[in-house]
Amino acid sequence: MWAVSAIRAAPSRAPGRCAHSALAQLRGILEEELEGIRGAGTWKSERVITSRQGPHIRVDGVSGEILNFCANNYLGLSSHPEVIQAGLKNLKEFGAGLSSVRFICGTQSIHKNLEAKIARFHQREDAILFPSCFDANAGLFEALLTQEDAVLSDELNHASIIDGIRLCKAHKFRYRHLDMADLEAKLKEAQKHRLRLVATDGAFSMDGDIAPLKEICQLASRYGALVFVDECHATGFLGATGRGTDELLGVRDQVTIINSTLGKALGGASGGYTTGPGPLVSLLRQRARPYLFSNSLPPAIVGCASKALDMLMEDNSIVQSITAKTQRFRSQMQAAGFTISGVNHPICPVMLGDARLASSMADDMLKRGIFVIGFSYPVVPKGKARIRVQISAVHSEEDIDRCVKAFVEVGRLHGALP
């Protein structure tokens, strides 16, 4: 009897040993991968901010006030008193959250009001909210396109566009960055498909360059294609009234679909949206998986974003302010000898090439009271490391001049400048 019990008990110990072995194997694989990242000089550390977001912040472990030059806080509304108050008002009136997705019991009047406001802002038929623009991009292509269709994507589009396109069954074409001849060749090749959708960032977040929407729209018209633009790094501050790159380049009536964010210029919290034809928005409410299976946007965030839009629609003078400050930074940096990518966009990538150089210079900038971050592979291609500087409307001219001075000092220290 004892022998039988022992035999029966033995297998119960084996799964535990296997599980332990599997976990040990996983740890070894992960540590090797992490060590490879450290060895390549592309390790990303997270600095801890101990204050509100803004042009002047406090950072854990660093004494004194720090100038922040790497936030997407383009209009400086992330901590604006009116925006905060609007969030508090909604928090008190509508609660912390809905504990539900939209189609069950997660749609409040404030969600519908914000969607209508977004559609008016962009002069489109309708709009739909998502937890983020990453989710908007993840939901759009799969819901809209089938194996009968084709999507043509700029090779440097944001990761969320790339991932969203991967999820759909459409035939996929990738054209060279901003290369209209290559796009035309791909459009010719895609003529046999039912729908043809050209997908592009309006402004490219790593390079600060702007899609040639006028030429894209001309090609789309010639070859019977639709145009989709991700406006995350344009909404609120590009164009005469901050409507984005379609306004900047005079093609508002030729862009079919816009996806954008509430987490950058429009309050800086989170949330994204799609705006465009009414039937498309209705289809997304039925089929977009990130919309159907994610909780509704929290009321406080809805209130903050709604107030930010109100402020922008009432007075767009802040748009002109950020344009002038962007030019001030770019011109001074170029005069000092730095290479700045892009043209007239508040994203001002200081091109350095080497990942360790970008990281070391960013660390030394912090020692001089300037918060910037080095970007390297896989966020940008190998050999194209940079420090991405972002200008905000609430930076003063003195802030900008101080940042340039620090760059010159650090650049010379590391041999990036003569």
Automatic annotation (TrEMBL):
Q: Give any Gene Ontology cellular component.
A: mitochondrion
Per the UniProt record, which residue ranges are transmembrane? none
Q: Which cofactor does it need?
A: pyridoxal 5'-phosphate
UniProt keyword Acyltransferase, yes or no? yes
Q: What is its EC number?
A: 2.3.1.29
Q: Name one GO molecular function term.
A: glycine C-acetyltransferase activity
Aminotransferase class I/classII large domain segment(s)? 65-406
* Catalysed conversion reaction: glycine + acetyl-CoA = (2S)-2-amino-3-oxobutanoate + CoA
Q: What does the entry give for GO biological process?
A: L-threonine catabolic process
PROSITE patterns given for it? AA_TRANSFER_CLASS_2
Keywords tagged on the record: Acyltransferase, Pyridoxal phosphate, Transferase, Transit peptide
**Gene3D superfamilies assigned to the protein according to its UniProt record, in alphabetical order:** Aspartate Aminotransferase, domain 1 (3.90.1150.10), Type I PLP-dependent aspartate aminotransferase-like (Major domain) (3.40.640.10)
The record's annotation in PANTHER family points to: 2-AMINO-3-KETOBUTYRATE COENZYME A LIGASE, MITOCHONDRIAL, CLASS II AMINOTRANSFERASE/8-AMINO-7-OXONONANOATE SYNTHASE
Q: Which family does it belong to?
A: Belongs to the class-II pyridoxal-phosphate-dependent aminotransferase family.
- Can you say what this protein is called? 2-amino-3-ketobutyrate coenzyme A ligase, mitochondrial
Question: Whose protein is this, by species?
Answer: Myotis myotis
